[in-house]
């Protein structure tokens, strides 16, 4: 049986930590910065841990 390939989109979007958690970049940080407070922009620039339900699907896509 052939090997399972890693999902190309998933490997660009998620990063696995040393403990096995998945990190993701938060949404709403692409444009319209004049309308967003600087405080919000700084908060959104931090990476966030993926929710457990989503992490289960994403790990499967990453071949973990």
UniProtKB/TrEMBL annotation:
InterPro entries: Ribosomal_bL35, Ribosomal_bL35-like, Ribosomal_bL35_CS, Ribosomal_bL35_sf. GO terms for cellular component: cytosolic large ribosomal subunit. Gene3D superfamilies: 4.10.410.60. One of its GO terms (molecular function) is structural constituent of ribosome. One of its GO terms (biological process) is translation. It comes from the Bacteria. Keywords: Ribonucleoprotein, Ribosomal protein. Pfam families: Ribosomal_L35p. The keyword Ribonucleoprotein applies. Belongs to the bacterial ribosomal protein bL35 family. NCBIfam families: rpmI_bact. This is Large ribosomal subunit protein bL35.
């Amino acid at each position: 049986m052939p090997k399972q390939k890693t999902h190309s989109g998933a490997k660009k979007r998620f990063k696995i930590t040393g403990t096995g958690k998945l990190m993701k970049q938060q949404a709403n940080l692409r444009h319209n910065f004049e309308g967003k407070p600087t405080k919000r922009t700084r908060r959104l620039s931090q990476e966030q841990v993926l929710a457990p339900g989503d992490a289960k699907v994403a790990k499967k896509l990453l071949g973990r």
